[in-house]
Fold this protein.
Amino acid sequence: MGLYQDQTNALSEIKRLAALVLDPIRRLDIGDDQWPLAIIAYGLATCNNFKYQESLEIYQTFESKCPSQEIRCRCLLQLAQFVRQRQGNGWRALLPFAIADSDETVCRQAAFLTITLAEPSSDESFVGAVELLKLIVAPSCKNPQALLDAILGLGDLRFMPYLDKFAAAVRPAQLQAFLEKSSAIPNALSCGWMLKLLDSQPSLTDTLVRCFISMPARAEQILDVVVPIPSWKFKNSSIQPLHGWSRPEYFARMLNQFSRNLSPQQIENIRAAWC
């Protein structure tokens, strides 16, 4: 025990905390006020050897010791800054915030940072989005609709093929459950994807109609944008708008597809919300 104590004390504070987190027994010695730094230390220590189940268990302890949503969000942003400085290396350390936090705001922010900071692979540019779309359907994912809304909220049409693949892979009932809880912002990506679902999955028609009725209140303008990914690679990482439409203008763009799939009354209900 003495030897272990000597070795631990010789480490830097962040390494010391990581060592404590990784030891289930000594984890109990971490004070509540130390957990914000401890979760960052754990993420940095294990990001390149990410263990899904272990990370969920540790994150649950972190959230119980740190119930403040504001503090957890601050931890997330600090961890993201480390990932940015490393040019995306270690981005998986952000995943527990996205899949295990009970607060939808934290989940959405973590999802956005995962997507925009993940280091591209040799054959995939949007590694973070691919990983999140796999984890959305995991039983342990606390806020799957928040993660899906985060991806839809990107407004970048380059993500459409990934969403199409996701929709084809999950059961219609599961997709319906996501959509019923959705608070997606209307944009070229979210509206375009839901229009595709109208064509391909008629069993979801009533749910999609409700989505289209609720969506326009969340944005004054419907945008088509490009999100710089990975953000650390660009001097200006601001989202770049390509096109913008008013709500009535965008309703007119969707009307042809609505006419193929919806009743006149359903179309009028959507029109009333958009125009």
